[in-house]
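Journal club side-thread
Mid-discussion, someone asked how the predicted structure for our own chain would compare to the paper's figures. Pasting it here so we can look after the session.
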Amino acid sequence: MTPPRAAGPSAPMMSARNADPYRAFRFRVEIDGLTVAGFTEVSGVDSKIQPEEYREGGRNDVVHVFAGKADPSRLVFKRGLTDSKELWLWYAQALAGSIQRKSGAVTLVDDSGGESFRWEFQNAFPVKWSGPELRAEQSTIAIETFEIVHEGIRRGP
């Protein structure tokens, strides 16, 4: 049995930055190359593969499982209500039957403002808009929610 190697000049050292997890509160949303508003929350940055089962005749003890189609989730964006109308106009066009598909990205930003991770979505269009909950007894920010569907998400460069 060989003793463990001491860390030296030839052994790669993990930097402190690589060991720390990224912070989830610094991100940008781009749609068709434009950075769109300051969102407080983004969810639905995921994709899953639907498993398909096949039961073979005469074999009650085995279920074969195959990879089915990819199933991306809807992206949900939340932000404080502002005077910006770009997203509302995009939704209003879809509501009127004029679907304009757009591509974009959700980018996680590091402490220095540089791009850490990028998730790109393709051929998206809006399917839901929700206005803020208005309550006289609370002094919270008015939040609007914007939901889009897309044809897939991938991790960018």
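Post-session note: Residues 2-16 have pLDDT under 50 and may be disordered.
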